[in-house]
Amino acid sequence: MDASADAPAAAALDPGLSAADVAERVAAGRTNAHTADTSRSVWNIVRANVFTLFNGIVFACFFVLFVLGRWQDALFGLAAFANSIIGCVQEFRAKRALDRLALLNAPRARVRREGAEAEIAPEGVVIDDILVLRAGDQVPADADVIESRGLQIDESMLTGESDAVDKQPGDEALSGSIVVAGEGAARVTRVGADSYANRFAGEAKRFSLVASEVRNSVNRVLKWMSWIIGPVGLLVCNAQMMVFGGWAAAFESGDWVQAIVNSIAAITAMIPLGLVLMTSIAFAVGAAKLASKQVLVNELPAVEGLARVDVICLDKTGTLTAGEIAFDAVRELGEAAPGHEAVLGSFGAAPDANATARCLREPFPVAEPLAAAAYIPFSSARKWSAVSFAAGPAGSWVLGAPEMVFGDAATDATAELGRVVTELASTGRRTLVLGHADATITAEDAEEERLPAGLVAVAVVTFQEQVRPDAAQTLEYFGAQGVGIRVISGDNPRTVAAIARSVGVDVAEGFDARRLPEDDDELGEVLEQNLVFGRVTPEQKKRMVIALQSRGHTVAMTGDGVNDALAIKTADLGIAMNSGAAATKAVARIVLLDGRFSHLPEVVAEGRQVIANIERVSMLFFTKTAYATGLAVLFGLLVLPFPFLPRQLSITDGLTIGIPAFFLALLPNAQRYVPGFLKRSLSFAIPAGVIIAIALTLYSLAATAIGVGIEELRTGSTIILAVVGIWVLTVLSRPITRIKGLIIGAMFIGLVGVFTIPLATEFFQLVDPGEDAAWLIVIVTGLTIGAIEIVRFFHRRYVAKALAAV
């Protein structure tokens, strides 16, 4: 069917800019050239992860020990190096993904200058240029349409509206949209950073790391310790100098070296060096496991994110549905006119058939379309097309939206057409009606785009979006887990509601987003009361996510179109389908590579394992920080020699915290996420740490009183801390499974080896503490273990009460 009209005479066309006009605009910088980067430069990333107060303290201690020739005591620096490298790598990955974000990927732009068409690079377009638009082109800059010959533009990737839009002179054509039919010309109004697509991309590309309670909690503790270390470090250093007779005497005798080593041991013990590394390893292992299941994690802490989510916002197209429309059925009305199947086949086979009409090609195949005697092409404004054939079925035929072809009769439930259309539309099907008239389309009808007289409904043709087979099961899972669902789409609210009902969402009808309030508080209330929203703009999607967050929700957003990108970036966790736009995948934290919605429960399970296990191991690290801080303060105030060398603390760090924590962080754990990770961890770590610090202080005082030497005292302190550390590990590992028992047993055997193998005892400077000190060690260790058990008893009751309240 040929619907082309004669092109306007060349004299009537706008000739476009002259070479001088173009040069003037280029000189003024009014071109479409646009180079955007994330707000986070490489230097900013390195500075944020390396040049911190925390790292400054650690690296300074590391450097001092190297200068003093005590490299054996500088092993703690390796963890700090690893932390900085992992932090930089994570942020470089996020920056690289954002830098690849591009909405405009048209290889060439077509412009009219001095009356002639030319193809140029998109960045060569200048303000006031005349764009020549044809089917398949991507609009390179914002422009106002000045000529239109059946021009239709698909703005779905920008606005979420699935239907192509007819463009008439005076209408706006947005950069990034696609011409799907017809041709025309448009005058450029905004270029470069001011254009819609680049403004959209610019907002999406603003750098931000995914919200992570685990990471934020650890960073908060590191921040606290960074400020505490300064004054406590000075207190300890002064005390160690006083132990050797004062500052002057210590420098004169050379004992200042040992005083500095003792001070560094106290300072570095206060910092939970391995916790950041352990957290990153747990995230990385989780991401690797998900990658094997076709789930790409763009940022490691996103593994944790979905376990914390309590509201998930779903875009309909591409998430609940496969993003494609398919033919459903034909329901004949009354006595069908002969040849209606051949007519449907011709509508589907027409060269200018839209996406819906093309779905008719498979059920109604034709060798070649019937020749048209008269033809009125489809228009998204009219929502119908009409044809009379030169040879074939007689009369004229119309295919279009029922209410646009037959008016109120299409919604009148008392008439056959209205009843059928209403019933089918309520199920979420897209309905078209095929009408027939005995009269053929006249030239006047075609010119005025007028429906033929005497039109009668012949059949109702239905189409259905392909719902993802795993959508209903996945939504049922989230419902069982107490996760709220919000379906938001740019499509008609009724259609969206019907699709939502088909996947198990209990909703009567959708809320039209054009009626959403401007006030954020009122918007939040609407979101609490409604589950399905239609006609939602990209900006509204972002506002809706923010409104939910402002009401205390942790929000996940899924989608595949560019129109979802801002909301996905703003959400606590953004999830994109691999079939979606590159822009959307670039800003998403998680990408479902095979597009299977059913992977999300697996992500939840992995996130829960990460959070629950890190909460357990964090209590080990925070307990160490607590007792190290307590020791530094007590020994500083009491002016006692610090009872450890840095290398001796490495024993307890490695065998009672670091190594077992690595394995514990990777064990299966299905514990459901509950907010308050840091508070629960510290409620055990602080009292346990205080008890250990007091126990070691009392041991040092008692050992000194009975004449135990400094090397024997250090060995005794190391034994006490090692045994108590193993006990803390055991307490926090309960219930003890076979794997946990093997881990704890291996660590105990390792400690026995350190204290008995000559090479190890020599390196760590461990000696026989003597009989008197041995009895003292047994008594202090036994009392400390008993006190730890009491702390754990009350801690478990506190946690149970807190979880019950939640």
Automatic annotation (TrEMBL):
<feature type="transmembrane region" description="Helical">
    <location>
        <begin position="739"/>
        <end position="761"/>
    </location>
</feature>
<dbReference type="Pfam" id="PF00122">
    <property type="entry name" value="E1-E2_ATPase"/>
</dbReference>
<dbReference type="InterPro" id="IPR023299">
    <property type="entry name" value="ATPase_P-typ_cyto_dom_N"/>
</dbReference>
<dbReference type="Pfam" id="PF00702">
    <property type="entry name" value="Hydrolase"/>
</dbReference>
<feature type="transmembrane region" description="Helical">
    <location>
        <begin position="682"/>
        <end position="707"/>
    </location>
</feature>
<feature type="transmembrane region" description="Helical">
    <location>
        <begin position="651"/>
        <end position="670"/>
    </location>
</feature>
<feature type="transmembrane region" description="Helical">
    <location>
        <begin position="224"/>
        <end position="250"/>
    </location>
</feature>
<feature type="transmembrane region" description="Helical">
    <location>
        <begin position="713"/>
        <end position="732"/>
    </location>
</feature>
<feature type="transmembrane region" description="Helical">
    <location>
        <begin position="626"/>
        <end position="645"/>
    </location>
</feature>
<dbReference type="InterPro" id="IPR023298">
    <property type="entry name" value="ATPase_P-typ_TM_dom_sf"/>
</dbReference>
<dbReference type="InterPro" id="IPR001757">
    <property type="entry name" value="P_typ_ATPase"/>
</dbReference>
<dbReference type="InterPro" id="IPR044492">
    <property type="entry name" value="P_typ_ATPase_HD_dom"/>
</dbReference>
<keyword id="KW-0472">Membrane</keyword>
<dbReference type="InterPro" id="IPR008250">
    <property type="entry name" value="ATPase_P-typ_transduc_dom_A_sf"/>
</dbReference>
<keyword id="KW-1278">Translocase</keyword>
<dbReference type="InterPro" id="IPR018303">
    <property type="entry name" value="ATPase_P-typ_P_site"/>
</dbReference>
<feature type="domain" description="P-type ATPase A">
    <location>
        <begin position="104"/>
        <end position="202"/>
    </location>
</feature>
<dbReference type="InterPro" id="IPR059000">
    <property type="entry name" value="ATPase_P-type_domA"/>
</dbReference>
<dbReference type="InterPro" id="IPR036412">
    <property type="entry name" value="HAD-like_sf"/>
</dbReference>
<keyword id="KW-0812">Transmembrane</keyword>
<keyword id="KW-1133">Transmembrane helix</keyword>
<feature type="transmembrane region" description="Helical">
    <location>
        <begin position="256"/>
        <end position="285"/>
    </location>
</feature>
<feature type="transmembrane region" description="Helical">
    <location>
        <begin position="50"/>
        <end position="68"/>
    </location>
</feature>
<protein>
    <submittedName>
        <fullName>HAD-IC family P-type ATPase</fullName>
    </submittedName>
</protein>
<feature type="transmembrane region" description="Helical">
    <location>
        <begin position="773"/>
        <end position="794"/>
    </location>
</feature>
<dbReference type="InterPro" id="IPR023214">
    <property type="entry name" value="HAD_sf"/>
</dbReference>
